[in-house]
Amino acid sequence: MKIAWAVPGAAKQYWPAAAISEDVSADIGLIDVPILVIGGEKDKVDSVELLETVVVPSLPGAQLTVIPGVGHLSPLEAPHHVASRIDAFLAGGMVSAPYPEDVATAFDSGLNSGNVDGVMTLFHPQAVMRTTDGLVVDGGPGAIRGEIKKLVSLKPIIKNTVRLVLKSGDIALLLLDWEIRVAPDDHSSVQHGTATQIVERSATGNWQIRVSNPLGTG
Questions:
Q1: CA angle at residue 200 from 195 to 205, to 5 degrees?
Q2: Angle, helix 141-153 to helix 102-112, in steps of 10 degrees
Q3: Which of 170, 168, 160 is nearest to 196 (CA)?
Q4: Which of 18, 74, 146, 172 could serve as a FRET partner for 164 with CA atoms 20 to 30 Å apart?
Q5: Handedness of CA 83, 62, 51, 121 (dihedral sign)
Q6: Do the beta carbons of residue 25 and residue 61 sit within 8 Å?
Q7: What is the spatial distance between Cα 129 and Cα 77, in angstroms, rounded to a whole number?
Q8: Is the overall model pTM greater than 0.70, yes or no?
């Protein structure tokens, strides 16, 4: 299908000549309504990494959702996906954690359903995560997303049980017992252990992971 564009010349030239370099950073922080940032996984103009490290942290309480296989023009490339993400956001269907202990439940729900975007909303933009095999992931949201995607590809069943919550203001420490079941080549594999998490309350009232540290596997 070919799309014919009918854009006045002046309007067409305004974007590359002026609008693309306009600095709106001073106005972004004034937004005080819920914000959903929609990105395309293959967008080379506004990459997912850019959205995660620059755009979302600049928007108070913003949530990011990424559409797989889509480039820069997501409303044209995947209109139904864009519409469904907006519908879910307006209906309050995004993953949230209004209490510190809800982080564990929301993480399990998002991961077990393969909802990478939902899981990523649970991580603070400056989060650090250690994987169960000891790898420290401290390269920002993009690096964490990569590890979460690898884990989701295994189609695991994960269960975190909160043993202890120590809360002080907008910071809380969680002690968790965790178990992951995966079935590589139809042979079930189980890992389990304990973990500590430091979580922080965001401007929207949801709690996000700042540090996640699984301790040992068995």
A1: 130
A2: 60
A3: 160
A4: 146
A5: negative
A6: no
A7: 33
A8: no
Q: What percent of the chain has pLDDT over 70?
A: 89
Buried b (16+ CB within 10 A) or exposed e, 143-160: bbbeebeebbeeebebeb
Both tokens of residue 124? 């603070």
* Distance from C-alpha of 169 to C-alpha of 88, rounded to nearest angstrom: 31
DSSP string, the chain: --------HHHHHHHHHTGGG---HHHHTT--S--EEEEETT-SSS-HHHIIIIIHHHSTT-EEEEETT--S-HHHH-HHHHHHHHHHHHTT-S---SSTTHHHHHHHHHHHTT-HHHHHTTEEEEEEEE-TTS-EE-S-HHHHHHHHHHHHHT--EEEEEEEEEEEETTEEEEEEEEEEEE-GGG--EEEEEEEEEEEEE-TTS-EEEEEEEEE---
- Strands 123-130, 136-137: pairing is antiparallel
